[in-house]
Specification:
Length: 388
């Protein structure tokens, strides 16, 4: 803290427990707080460094000293309507002043979490995403995230939260999304964009990824390129049979003058088994006819794992006969046969932007929806080696 004392220099007041200077300052304060020789003795601003140490009080430290939870401190400082005993209110505010705590907006955030799909690799992707969300929340000193599996439960408990983040590929009915928006208008959807006029979103730019993959294949001399994907993705309030990756593949392939008839295999769910089935069908349709593609773009690693298993079983040489590239860059991509080239989605950046977007919307009561696309990056391995 800075203390102003007439005819004396400005003094540094350290936070308790940070260094030996603290006790001396406490003794000085006790001896002179009521001394008329020091009129105007007052707190001006908190210092952040004493004896070379970072001493700015944290939310956790304030809560511990006041004997309340971190969420109580956060709600008291950020929510004027928060109901709390007057004695507790005064104690918390006194501790904040004594410790020089600088309030930072820390909203209570729920995570609308998809239930397990039963597909190990798909669930692993979302498990990793939950982990980075929790780590990001901790780095922001937010209360522990509350994970909720049901949109109906989140709607019922809306008064407990300031906003929410969605994780997973669950398809929510339009009526449920509108009901949620009525009681909890600030939310950010990760990976999907189910209600672009109601909530913000942060997604990988899968359309650009498809163009990047086609460009890389063409640059490597591949010209007969197939696509393998699944169904069940949504855009806006519309449930399309085509995933955005398939739509983008068709669009960009046509723009680049590539043939797509008979080269798009996109049906069923995003599972290893379905990837195996679709790759089997591709080989059956083209090998004997002499029209085998020389490149294959797969919508997700979970499908690509099954596709590579089928191609190995059918003696299709990868990448010499058929180059394969996928999306997600999950850890399993390093251990397939051959190791899978895949476009990496930066989950830490997804999490960082999700929190940033949500907190910005809450602080500024933003009504215009914000939709952020993040680029992906190819991690080359043996299944497809791009041109240097």
């Amino acid at each position: 803290m800075l203390l102003h004392m007439p005819a004396t220099p400005l003094c540094i007041a350290p936070i308790a427990g940070t260094c030996a200077v603290y006790q001396s300052w406490v003794n000085f304060h006790a001896a002179n707080a009521a001394n008329p020789a020091f009129p105007g003795y007052a707190v001006v601003k908190p210092f952040t460094k004493v004896c070379g140490e970072d001493v700015m009080a944290t939310l956790k430290e304030v809560a511990g000293r006041a004997g309340v939870s971190q969420s109580t401190v956060s709600r008291l400082l950020n929510d004027p309507s928060f109901s709390i005993k007057e004695e507790t209110r005064r104690r918390v505010l006194r501790v904040c002043e004594e410790m020089g705590y600088r309030n930072v907006f820390r909203p209570a955030i729920a995570v609308l979490d998809a239930p397990p799909s039963g597909e190990e690799l798909q669930d692993a992707y979302f498990a990793d995403l939950r982990k980075v969300l929790a780590e990001r929340a901790e780095s922001l000193e937010l209360d522990q995230l509350t994970f909720i599996r049901s949109i109906h439960e989140l709607t019922e408990r809306a008064t407990e939260f300031d906003g929410f983040i969605t994780v997973g590929a669950t398809v929510f009915p339009e009526a449920d999304l509108r009901a949620l928006h009525m009681v909890l208008p600030h939310g950010v959807c990760i990976d999907t964009n189910p209600a672009p006029r109601l909530f913000d979103s942060v997604c990988p730019d899968l359309s650009q990824t498809m163009l990047d993959a086609l460009d890389a294949m063409i640059a490597a001399g591949r010209s007969h390129i197939a696509f393998l994907g699944g169904v069940g993705s949504i855009m806006g309030m519309h449930d399309y049979p085509e995933d955005i990756r398939e739509l983008s593949f068709r669009q960009w392939a046509a723009h680049l003058g590539l043939e797509t008839d008979g080269l798009v295999y996109s049906s069923g769910t995003f599972t290893v088994e379905n990837g195996y089935r679709l790759a089997e069908q591709l080989v059956a349709d083209h090998r004997e006819a002499g029209s085998m593609p020389d490149g294959l773009i797969v919508a997700a690693d979970v499908l690509a794992v099954g596709a590579l298993q089928a191609l190995n079983a059918l003696r299709v040489e990868v990448p010499d006969e058929l180059a394969v590239v996928s999306v997600n860059n999950q850890s399993i991509a390093r251990y397939t046969s051959p190791p899978l080239s895949s476009y990496a989605i930066d989950q830490r950046e997804l999490a960082r932007m999700a929190f940033s977007t949500l907190i910005d919307g809450l602080k500024h009561e933003r009504r215009v929806r914000r939709h952020i696309l993040l680029t992906t990056e190819l991690v080359p391995r043996a299944s497809f080696v791009p041109q240097a």
